[in-house]
Write a structure and sequence with these properties.
Number of strands: 16
Radius of gyration: 24 Å
Shape: globular
Strand content: 15-25%
Strand order of the largest sheet: 10-9-11-8-7-12-13
Structural class: alpha/beta
Amino acid sequence: MPATDIDTAMLTLGENARRASRAMMRASGAAKNQALHAMADALGDSRAGLKAANAQDVDAARAAGLEPALLDRLTLSDKSLDLMISGLRQIAALPDPVGTITASTLRPNGMRVAQMRVPLGVIGIIYESRPNVTIDAAALCLKSGNAAILRGGSEAVHSNLALGDVVQAGLRAAALPAEAVQVVNTTDRAAVGKLITMTEHIDVIVPRGGKGLIARLANEARVPLIKHLDGNCHVYIDAAADPEKALAIALNAKTYRYGICGAMETLLVDASVAVSILPRIAAAFAAHGVELRGCPRTRDIVPAAKPATDEDWATEYLAPILAVRIVDSLDEAIEHIARWGSGHTDAIVTEDLSAAQRFQREVDSSSVYVNLPTCFADGFEYGLGAEIGISTNRLHARGPVGLEGLTTLKWVLSGEGQTRG
């Protein structure tokens, strides 16, 4: 498609989305929930057609040599469709954040000052490989009263367009504008370039994908991003750690799933407990096929560990590889995380309340845990129902972004004719 045609098509999507966002802003909670349930019903009714569309994508991806893990993410199975249906109904059951009044105060002159939660407007979502994001993103944007433009990866184009039809059928069933959720129907990368610069039509971009995609958007976007570049997560085993807790937490933080952004990538161990605990931890990781890369003191205790370099401290492996460093104190652990961490999720294992409080106060990450593995970095686990992504931004939303993260606040004041003297 010529660049001028792509620009025109994207501008049309933007105009339609802006118009639909005004309707969504005033949509009732009942209408939004009706749309979500209708989408769930349509997913079940369209199962055969969705799997046929998905088979086109899977066959093409397999022929192109896509990695097995990515093929697995791409495939729509009965189980994954059932999970989407369940997810839609769960989001429908969540409280509607729109219109919620917070921080209401009465001023001395009788004027009422409060804040109301309102939608962000139009959200552009750019993602790779996973067709389920089409449903998750559509549902969260709809429930929070926003309009959405979805641009999935080229490898899932047939799946995403078919799922987009299901979403729009659900919107129409609830008498809501179908343009409230639109799927970009071209795989041309120029469409992404246009989407991330349409400041007149798009209020925020949420990228969900690899480091390369997010780095590109961070460099080129004119629309604000809710993003995280990588998840270089740490677990620190403190001098006052319970050894059994430490072993279980470290193992789960790394091996729950290697490819998630909340997977532990560096283990920090206090020198006072390293000799007693590191051999057990190393043996547990060896049983799971995890390669250890350690500092010199780590390798004195665990000779099988490979030498770690500064690059290892900075790397998000997303693989069965773990960097291990022995530190002399809580201060040194916090300093290491400040230098090498990505501000995503970090954890301490300790029975010392003051150490736990210091760690949570001083580690500047979007999520900071005490006696929990970093793999809990997930909106569902936080009680958000679902998430549209995890943000390491400091402004607007930070950490898992659920319904509330897709809204903002406006001031609402009420009076009885007071005037300012």
